[in-house]
Each structure stands twice: as C-alpha cells, then as structure tokens.
Amino acid sequence: MGTHGHWRMSVDEQHGFEDASAAQQRFLSLFLRSEREVFRYVAALVPNVTEAEDIVQQTAIALWQKFDAYDPAQPFTPWACRFALNKARQWIERRQRWQALLERGLAEELALRRQALAPEFERRLKHLETCLEKLPSEQRSLIQGYYYE
Fold this sequence. Notes:
The protein is an all-alpha fold. 81% of the residues lie in helices and 0% in strands.
C-alpha cells in the first residue's frame, strides 16, 4: 500500500511484467518470421488450407505456452515444426476416428434415430405453436422475430 492507500507494485512485480512483455515480443518476432515455413510444413500434411491455418494457430498457442522451454541457441523454426507435427497428427487421428465411425454406419444410425424421434419433435412443435397462438400479437411477433427470423 502506498502512503495514500493506493496499491503500489513492488520492483519485482514491475520487473516481472517487463519480463513477460519482453518474452512476448521475442516470441512474436520469432514466430512471425517462421510462420510461413510452419504453414508450408503443415500444408504438406493437411492439404485443406483452412484446416492447415487452424493447425498453425493451435501450434502458435502451444509454442507460446512452452516458450520458456525454448533454447535460444537452437533455431526456432525446426522447434516450431515439431509442435506443428504433433498438432497435425492429433488432427489426422481425430479425422480418422470420425471417418471410421462413419464407415461403421454412424451416419445411418443418426438418420435412423432422427427418424424415430420425428413424431416426438412434431408433437413438441405443435404444442409450441399452440402456446404461441395464446400470446398477445406483440409478444408473439417479438418471439417469432427473435427465434425464427
């Protein structure tokens, strides 16, 4: 506390902020220089551009989280590419699991369940319409505007 009841930062706390800010600047400088290379690396593994961009973003987050483990004596791009490889692998595995589920009839299963639930959905929709008709027109148009338009 300061003399007038104001909270003051200790020298250590100020120094901590400066360190964090300096680390962030260093990270951004390194990452931005290597981003195109990392993207090319990911795009070779994941040909869809949008998905490759997502993986590069996930890679950037992971790199920042582990930046204190980065050895500045080593080149940054190969280090970043190792993270990108892990993120791309995770993406490919998730996609393969999803593909396997589809091949094992997941899509058909979902369609059958939806069909089975259709009468229940219809019943609920009719009930909802009945409720809406009971509302004054101003309130009804407000709800219709919000949920249907």
